[in-house]
Structures are given as structure tokens and as C-alpha cells.
Amino acid sequence: MMRRRTTLLTGCTALVLALGATACGAGEPVAAGGGDKALDGKTVSVAGVWSGSEQKNFQKVLDAFTEKTGATTEFVSTGDNVSTVVGSKIEGGNAPDVVMVPQVGVLKQFAEAGWLKPLDKKVQGTVEKNFAEVWRNYGSVDGTLYGLYFKAAHKSTVWYSPEALEQAGVTPPKTYDALLKAGRTVSDSGLAAFSVAGQDGWTLTDWFENVYLSQAGPEKYDALAAHEIKWTDPSVVEALTTLGELFEDERLVSGGRKEALTTDFPGSVEKVFGPEPDAAMVYEGDFVAGVAKDQFGKDIGTDADFFPFPPVGDGEAPVVSGGDAAVVLQDGKNAEAGMALLEYLATPEAAAVWAEAGGFLSPNKELDPGSYGDDVTRATAKSLIDAGDSVRFDMSDQAPAAFGGTQGKGEWKILQDFLRDPSDPEKTAAELEKAAAKAYGN
């Protein structure tokens, strides 16, 4: 629970003055007004993985919080190894107040280590009103709500240059087999089919998860995510074999596998939407649109568009999601102000700031869809909200960080090795199981 102030401003009164957005009693939102600056002199330190345009746009949200409350904010980018960086800061007595956690497994790890403050009743009430149960479950550990999912991702989208597909004479494919066929036709026209960000191992886990969810089905997906079945299961080998068909075809991957392994995520978007395109398509989440728009000036829906990740074989089209959860650390120097930031982040007002900037989806069902700047993003956000509890969260993000969320280790490293040489799916499955068993402790 958030500790009471030692001044006369206690409990609900303090939070109302801090946010100027919530009434006491029933907890219904009221007009925000100009803010009462009740957190003047407080500094909220925030750590998260974002950099580049994502960090810039999140800073706009933090600036809006400052304008409302008077609190100063400091954002520190952790890079991909958020658990390691945050752990070292806690040990060094320099814990941030708030962490934007990008993996369910890391949130669980932090909670079990006793690092997190449960969200106070005020924040819980806002979350229950504005978020579907699936997002509350992802933010909870053993029934206690610790995390607020501020930013979501729709990770079943394939982004493409409409001009490139038109020149090749192909249309967005409806099946995975048709995707490969269309890719080879694009290659024959002079561009590679896909830009693959193999330098960032998380993109490869996303490729695998979409193939696996569609091919193996949701029950197997849930079982593998919980390590209730082994990674040597035939369903895993089958999915790796399917993915390997794409990776091993040099016509399909821009620069071939070797160049893909030195291409990071922003670079993969540049290969499709930059000034000198090398590829027609890039698979990744909806956040591709933010990079295409902010860094390369693309008009979303005209210069850049997407189609749903197509179903594999007889399976259904996958809907894989991800997200970043805000949590408050026990050891933060301004944990009370940090909790006030989370209450602000739980409002549609906060989500609208980034939605208007672009490159963002919110799981907040109360956010006005008109806040999104284009029809494509609006449609993507709607499909994620409408999917409700049928969405499957990114599998690697549910795993212990040592397996599913650490650069150069576990699933990230093993799938990079698979991209380098996709000839032996059984061997890759065995390596994945060995790493998983160690990380899960079973």
C-alpha cells in the first residue's frame, strides 16, 4: 500500500491534489483541471527499456504528469537487460521509483524477490475500471496486483510497402504458404521479401511464437509457455522446421542470414521504409508504424501498411500480444510519488498523450479511439481490445528472464544460432529445452 503523507494531506485527499483527476468515494473520474502541483519538489525516477522515438514519446507522457502534479521525472534507459540493471541499482542503493517492465516473467521475478509494492486501492480501482481482466491477470502475482500495463503491442502484424508489393504484382497473403510464395515473387522483382532483425533476439522469439500459436494451437502454447511440456515436443520441432523454411531461403531474407544477424530492429524497419529500401516486408509488432512515421516520414496507411500474420497450415490466425507494465519498487526514494505516477498512467488521459504522438497501442479500453492519429493504428488497437481474453501474451515474456529476456542467453541466443544455421530443428529444440529446464528449475 502507498504510505500516507506525514503532512495534513493524507489518503485520498493527497492523491486528488496530486493528480487533480479523481474523486474520492466512488472513484469516478472528474475534470482534470490544471493540476494542483501537490508533488512540487518530488522527483520520480523511472527506468525502462525504451530508447529513440519510444523514449521521446514516453517523455511526453512524463512531461504531462509533471505539468499536472509538479513532480520532476527522470527516465533512464536500461537496454534489454532490465532485470540485471534494476537488480544492480537496488543492490547499490540507487533503486528507481518506477520500472516499466517488458516481460511478465520479469514482473513475477521482481515480485517474488520482494522488490515491488502492491498497487494501492486507488490505483487498483482505476485499473479495474479501465482494463480488461486479461491485463489485470498479467500484472498480478499470486492474486496481488503489482503491475499496470500502460503500453501494449499487437505482435501479429506484417508491415509492408504497398508500392513494393504493387510493383511485384502481389497482394497481402492469407496463408503462411502464400506468404512465402509472395515473398519469392517479390524477390524475383528485385527486392528481398523480408527484413529480419536477427541482432535483436526478441524479434526471433516473436517469429517463432506466431508460427507456434497458429500451428500448435492455444492449449499447446499455454503449456509450453508454462514449461508444462518440453521444448523437445514434436510441436516445437515442427514450428522450427516451418520457420526454418523461411530463414534458409536466401531469396527471402534481405542480405541473407549473415546480414540479418547484424540488423537490429530499427535497422530492419529502415530496410523497408528508409530512403534506400532493400526489402518489401518486415514482420514485427504495431510499433513498426512509429519508427516508419517518426524516422522515415511515412504516411501510415499509404506509404506503410500491414496485414495480419497469416495462419499456418490448418491453424487459426495468431494474435500474440506484449506490453510494458509499470511497477513501483519498495526501495525507491519517492515511492509515494511513484504510485501517483501509476494512477496517472492508468487514465485514458495519459494514454492519449502517446496515442496522439504515434507508435503506441493502449490496453486501456476507455481510451477514445480518436486519439490515434491514423486509421491503421486505430484499427490495430480496436482488434487488440476486441480480442479480449483470447489474446496470448508473448511467450518469451512469460518466461524467466534468464531464458526469455536476456541478450546473448537462453531463447534469444539459441534462436539467433538457429537463424545462422536452420538446418537442424531437433538440435535447436534440445538446446532450448536444456536452457528452459535450467531457468525454470525443472
Features:
4-stranded mixed β-sheet, 442 residues, signal, alpha/beta, disordered N terminus, 21 helices, D-Maltodextrin-Binding Protein, domain 2, SBP, Alpha-glucoside transport system substrate-binding protein, transport, Bact_solute-bd_prot1
How does the overall form come out from the CA principal axes? Answer: globular
Structural class: alpha/beta
Radius of gyration: 22 Å
Largest sheet: 7 strands, mixed
Number of helices: 21
Distance between the termini: 34 Å
Strand runs, count? 13
CATH topology (fold) name of the largest domain: D-Maltodextrin-Binding Protein, domain 2
CATH class of the largest domain: Alpha Beta
In percent, how helical is the residue content? 40-55%
Mean model confidence by pLDDT? 89
Low-confidence stretches: 1-34
> Can you tell me the CATH superfamily of the largest domain?
Periplasmic binding protein-like II
Proportion of strand residues: 5-15%
Structural features, described:
The protein is an alpha/beta fold. The chain is 48% helix and 13% strand. It folds into 2 domains: 11-153 and 322-387, D-Maltodextrin-Binding Protein, domain 2 (3-Layer(aba) Sandwich), CATH 3.40.190.10; 157-318 and 408-440, D-Maltodextrin-Binding Protein, domain 2 (3-Layer(aba) Sandwich), CATH 3.40.190. The strands form 3 sheets. Strands 1, 2, 3, 4, 7, 12 and 13 form a 7-stranded mixed sheet that branches. It has a 4-stranded mixed sheet with strand order 9-10-8-11. Strand 1 (43-48), helix 2 and strand 2 (72-77) form a beta-alpha-beta unit. The chain starts with 10 loop residues before the first helix and ends with a helix. 53% of the residues are buried.
